[in-house]
Amino acid sequence: MKFELKATDPNSSARAGVMTTAHGDIQTPIFMPVGTAGTVKAVHQREIKEDINAQIILGNTYHLYLRPGLDILRKFGGLHQFNGWDRPILTDSGGYQVYSLAGIRKIKEEGVTFQSHIDGSKHHFSPETVMDIQRAIGADIMMAFDECTPYPCEYDYAKKSMEMTHRWLKRCCDRFDSTQPLYGYDQTLFPIVQGSTYKDLRKQSAEVIASFERDGNAIGGLSVGEPHELMYESTELVCSILPKDKPRYLMGVGTPENILEGIALGVDMFDCVMPTRNARNGMLFTTQGVINIKNKKWEDDQTPIDEHLGGYVSTFYSKGYLRHLVHCKEMLGAQIASVHNLTFYLWLVKQAREQILAGTFLEWKNKMVKHLMQRL
């Protein structure tokens, strides 16, 4: 994988770049739709590619390991062949799922033993097996196995967890470097900065992660309930330490406001389930602000969902019709809303990139944050 910086905003730390992978180039800053179980929920691959124009999507190691399982993925030749997606894929290591399974897992130095949320069966993830699983999935970008600490988190626990994550990273790198890709194309490994919201821990972790000199770096353990101000402080600190010539990925973030602020701090890559999860619950992000399509005020609204956004679903379907579908719990409602929200997110990062290239990002960002988060 290669990363080339194209421009830096003169008034902030925002950057525009190009990542080159075996499955194509990625224009940064970029938002990555989350395809947990090999699918972005309620969205066809054709729509992701042609309507939404996503340049990279996510798969999830934990979920794909459980279903369909590695034997099936290997028989198909990896996730790209399995789901028909021919652009880049990033896989989460399963560390966040381990965090979210707090009641049914045990964390030790050798790895994590956990129960499947599907049938209760017992499984074990170690840094080595997680590398092997991601080799079998065939992601272009693999994530190191880490422990994502909760918020709030005691300092001593955050410190011990961070140090274990660093030891796990060494094991991940050793396994990654001693194995080969399975499907004839290169893969790359991103380490993950941890340390909760403690500045000294974040600084230490960023320095350790940078010392491994991998092709890109991620910032984990944020967007887990902490105030946005703390998330921004930690992000700014870490971005000031991580190398400028490599992409930075802020995991699990977030709202349109979070993404714009993250870009301003020097982040290049984002992912979040928010656009699709909120879509299924009737919340739409638009170029004019946020809409709760369930509200009665949209019942007889004949205007398009978002005529300024472009794209098929946003300009073809009316707000009144979408409200009817969501109100009736029709599957088409979730599909339309999901495609719309993802189209908006990809539009947003594309606009940010254009503003960075033009040298006008900061002023535009400050205006857009207020504009896009207003409730309509």
What is the terminal-to-terminal distance?
42 Å
Biggest sheet strand line-up: 4-15-14-13-12
What amount of the residues lies in strands?
Answer: 15-25%
Structural class: alpha/beta
Q: Portion of residues in helices?
A: 40-55%
Question: If you had to describe this structure to a student in words, what would you say it looks like?
Answer:
There is one protein chain. By secondary structure, this protein is an alpha/beta fold. Helix content is 43%, strand content 18%. The protein has 15 helices and 17 strands. The chain has a five-stranded parallel sheet with strand order 4-15-14-13-12. A four-stranded parallel sheet has the order 5-6-10-11. Strands 1-2-3 form a three-stranded antiparallel sheet. A hairpin with a 2-residue loop joins strand 7 and strand 8 (111-115). Helix 7 packs parallel to helix 8, helix 8 (199-211) packs parallel to helix 9 and helix 13 (319-327) packs across helix 14. The termini are far apart.
Question: What features would you highlight for this structure?
Answer:
five-stranded parallel β-sheet; 15 helices; alpha/beta; 376 residues
Layout of helices and strands:
Elements: E1 2-8, E2 15-21, E3 24-28, E4 30-32, H1 45-51, E5 57-60, H2 61-66, H3 70-76, H4 79-83, E6 89-92, H5 95-100, E7 105-108, E8 111-115, E9 122-125, H6 127-137, E10 141-143, H7 155-177, E11 188-190, E12 192-193, H8 199-211, E13 217-219, H9 228-241, E14 248-250, H10 256-265, E15 269-271, H11 274-280, E16 283-286, E17 289-292, H12 312-316, H13 319-327, H14 331-358, H15 361-372
Parallel strand pairs: 4-15, 5-6, 6-10, 10-11, 12-13, 13-14, 14-15
Antiparallel strand pairs: 1-2, 2-3, 7-8, 8-9, 16-17
